[in-house]
Amino acid sequence: MMRTIHAMLAMLLLAVPALAPAIDTERAFDDPVLQQRYENINRELRCLVCQNQTIADSNAGLASDLRREVRELIAAGKTDDEIREFMIERYGDFVLYRPRMTAQNLLLWAAPILLLVFGVIAALRVIRRRAAEADDESVETEADST
Amino acid sequence: MAKFIVPLVLFLLMGVFLYVGLQRDPRYVPSPLIGKSAPEFTLPSLQDPSYTVASTELAGRPWVLNVWGTWCSGCRQEHGVLLEIARQNAVPLVGLNWKDEDDAAKKWLRDLGNPYAVVAVDREGRTAVDWGVYGAPETFLIGPDGTVLYKHIAPMTMEVWRTEFLPRIEAPHSKSGSST
Questions:
Q1: Among A27, A71, A130, A146, fewest CB within 10 Å belongs to which?
Q2: Does residue B126 sit at the A interface (CB-CB below 8 Å)?
Q3: CATH architecture of A2-95
């Protein structure tokens, strides 16, 4: 049993993608600050033809087109937010790997808090009931002892 | 008995969410362009590069933009449908030849027939990015005032043409939306 688990864990490790270098063959910018921004933004944008990859790690034609847009927007002096906005205007929120809070997904963002509140209420009710039952029992045992 | 009702309701609710989730196609990404004005483009024509295709010249009546490439198998699949739509002559069909080779595209139209009123060449894919194109074939319907009324992602079918495009062409602005 343990051996199977170990084997499975080992296979899981193999499934972890290698920390692949950027797909670009050349640096986009000589300035390391701009290059860093370029790489960071690329890692946050979804490649929509290869949906579980970012445009930083896809060599799809669309991904390289989007990297080109990012490079040009940075070169044009746009801020990171402006570049994200540019992508959202064209491809929608789905292009972002780190979703924004919007009216549509508010419930999703609130879910952890709501679940915690429900959980606390449920736990309190169970604790109170158990306490009440325990009191009843102790009353009963007292009655027995007399 | 009452003890089981809350978990049961929660379980069923979760089941409904998961079931609905299974029916949805993750490859389909709704276009944020629906209801907004269509991105403008001025691109060379495939047949005559000295002639430019300008999206603004198409204003005043509904038109259809079909994004295609000879490398795209879905485009071959839908080609017969596009020819049929062109025969109906309801709206001009504008092709956007996306990241393709001119010679291959011209040969494609010679061999399979040309459903397009005009084909704009977007070799670098810049116009496609403006339109939020992520996988050919994609087909947009643009209203007479230049707003995007509808986007179909996947090969075109007569069914989609009849149920989604034609009603919006006949009564533009009455509704807009998008589907796979």
A1: A146
A2: yes
A3: Orthogonal Bundle (1.10)
